[in-house]
Amino acid sequence: MLKISTRKTLSALASAALCCSMAVAQNGNWLTSGGDVQRSGWNKDEKILNKSNVGSMKLLWKTKTDVYPHGLHTLMDPLVVQNVPTASGPKEMVYILGVGDTLYAFDAKAGTIVWQQKFKYEALPPMRPPEGAPPRPAQVLPTDTRHYNFLNPGGSTDVPVIGEPDAKGVRPIYVLDGGGNLHILSDVTGEDLKPVIKTGATSKFALQLWNNSIIYAGRGGIYSVDLASGKVTPSKGFGGGGGLWGRRGPVITSDGVVWTTTGDGIYNPSKPDNLVLGNSVVGFELKDGAWMVKDWFTPPNWDWLRRRDLDPNNTPTSFMFNGKEYMAASGKECRLYLLDPKNMGGPDHHEPLLKTPLICNEAVDFASAGSWGAVSSYLDAKGTRWVLVPFWGPKHSGIKFPIENTPATKEGGVAAFRLVDKGGKPAYEPVWVSRDMFRGEPPIVANGVVYTWGSGDDTQQVWPDIGLNFDSSNRAALSNHVTVYALDAETGKELWSSKDTITSFNHFTGITVANGKVYMSSYDGNVYCFGL
């Protein structure tokens, strides 16, 4: 009896130790674009890198993949999992989806590719034009995918999402391929854990995992896939308006409403069963078996914006402030809005709670200025709420920050605001603007440090000799290279940069910071890992 009791005790202790180790390991994971369903870009659990040691970072490894560009796209945001139970023992792994429909799994320590999974599928039929519009001519694609239109590059450009582990520690990776097929793969081997689910809709940007469903912005609205039944639920009553954007994908607020931004397009809410909501932030709720529009915010100057292609194309972020949930949003016009998810724009959908003066885009440029990608937010050690806005081009001369770092922004940067209480109401307080970087991109915040990058992406779309042209090779030939920056989160002061280490640019990808390492990729198919 004593032996059995001892065995039970030891078994219980071992199980407890395993649970504890898994709980600790989970703190070092980065399982979705932006880090959470709020798309905050805040890694609350990073403890290794800090303001004192980040200046000592160096290149730990560089690995070349076989990805081939589609348009300007190659590799998406890296995701990170600790203690993956591989055949050779627990490993920290990095997962990156390539536009050529290949998921790569890297050993985070060595940088070697452990496995890669290639997806094959039949392309989806083209979308039907809106009612009353002339039929679209047949599209003849170039044989070299580098020439594809950078707005519609084809292939897989979404960012996967990773779920919780099973009893053996195996996690599912959810990937949507370029044919609209949802794959559920083992993070250990890359093999299918469940049969492929045909959704009938692709997504340009990141997936969400919420209430045992995969949720994403796809063709014509929001889609969800119930992981227990495989049932696909589409949108209903949404007539479009410029396509669904936001690089980190949709945001989910605490009430389960799914929010996304719409691109440059017409705004016409006159038909409740066919809402056309271009240039807007739109929320969808699951109702009567479909995703229905619940609420939206549209800037009052939406038509002025539409005529200049200045849509609010960023992924917003939601957060709590003084016990209430808010949302921060921006876009190519380059203002920062504060919105109430319970009443997005007042009775006419046009009134935000707050809007800042223009942060950038004094030249009203639709291609190489404005705020792009995603807004980030975090709480500092004192409990102060911060909101970070990436932007392209120079800072607007009409807005002043107490701290303006040098060299002054010419090609892009990041602007930081505090959210403060003034007379019982929230207010944005400008704090700092970063040094110049060639196209400021969506930041990640971790342990008092802001990590961002200049993409080096030549964003010109119009040339004097050929006019407006969407052949991506034009831009690729003129692009520069990625430079990663680590900035002091309180002041924006540069603490470290990758300088000329990365030799190629990137387009619409993301940076990841986890467990003392910083991951970045480039157009030429290389993955870089920096650390101490």
TrEMBL record:
PANTHER family of this UniProt entry?
Answer: CELL SURFACE PROTEIN, OUTER MEMBRANE PROTEIN ASSEMBLY FACTOR BAMB
As given in the record, the signal peptide range reads 1-25
Superkingdom of source: Bacteria
List where this protein forms a coiled coil: none
InterPro entries in the record, alphabetically? PQQ_b-propeller_rpt, Quinoprotein_ADH-like_sf, WD40/YVTN_repeat-like_dom_sf
- What keywords is this UniProt entry annotated with? Signal
From the Swiss-Prot or TrEMBL record, give the protein name.
PQQ-like domain-containing protein
